[in-house]
Amino acid sequence: MEHQNPEPSRRDRKVVEAAASVLAAGLTAAAAAAALRRALKPLRLAAAAIRAAADLARRIPADRRPRAAGPTAQQNRRDSHHYRAWYLVNAARRIHTAIRARGENETVAAAVRNALRPEMRYLRQHLAAQQNRRRAAADADRMAAIYGDRLGWWSAQDGSTTSECRHAHGRDYLVSRPPRMGLPGAVHPHCRCRSVRPWGTRLLT
């Protein structure tokens, strides 16, 4: 699980937009960390939590612009900044909660160190999900170049298939308006779905 909601709340949206702009600007690590601390400041969390979240951003590799990316991959690249920003907002909140709940003899620095242990696991999950979305977008663009905007959804049919992916199997979707669950291959961290030629069936929404 990626530990982030698909969309930020209305209250957080401006903070996420500001953080996404910082991530998209391609600043150096030090400049990006400073800009992110300013962007996250409206959350009114402990300064140590905001610093820790900004430092987490240093561990997120910058997206390399592909030489020739289709429209789905380009949109995914734009979306990835918002997903990353939303992850950092949630990380700052989790670290802030750990600071407030620390033991009587525990320092703020120790609370942050302890909070970062599980946070690194969440970060790896986040990065894996981003990679899945990147692959899925490239696959959809490749198939759309052959079959057009309407593609089919293929899912593995075995005991490991999730209910969402099982439901999508054999249905069509539009590359220009992907279903709410996302693209084939990006529904969950271990998604094995893929885009195929259109089935000629009802559209997923």
TrEMBL record:
Q: Which UniProt keywords apply?
A: Membrane, Transmembrane, Transmembrane helix
TM annotation in the entry: 15-36
Q: What is this protein called?
A: Phage head morphogenesis domain-containing protein
